[in-house]
Fold this sequence. Notes:
This protein is 17% helix and 43% strand. It has 4 helices and 12 strands.
Amino acid sequence: MSAAMYPKVFQEYKEFTGSFGPVDCLSTRLFLDGPKIAEEFQVEIERGKTLHIKALAVGDLNKTGQRGVFFELNGQLRSVLVKDNLAMKEMKFHPKALKSVRGQVGAPMPGKVIEVKVEPGQKVEKGQPLCVLSAMKMETVVNCPLTGVVTVIHVNTGTSLEGDDLILEITAEE
């Protein structure tokens, strides 16, 4: 009946249960909010099979946007990595410059962009300054590795970078 009346909603439900399994054995509060630290609860997965779970801790966010969740399952310590979608929206990822791709210019060290000296479409010469990075009150000029034309600039003034983050791309002049 649901599939006929609400085909899109039913399809989303089937995809959800395909990914996460049956969640009807969780209480509404546990499903929507998750357990509180040190909270114990039981989940009856089928008649006569009950899991005893105690939430212990939630770890810090790692670079891939995941958190370690630590819990006891039937008295045994367990941990899983859980993707934190809310935190992922706040994290900023910069593509890395590939050393194998000629014309990709990466940050030589972690720092903050304090000046971009070129614009897209601008012709550049080998050794020409492209941008200036600042790290620990020391400025570093990033120079052009080849003669060509700037095609894409991936940073702005004030952008914080890690080592090898892609700054800009240059198409080599033939």
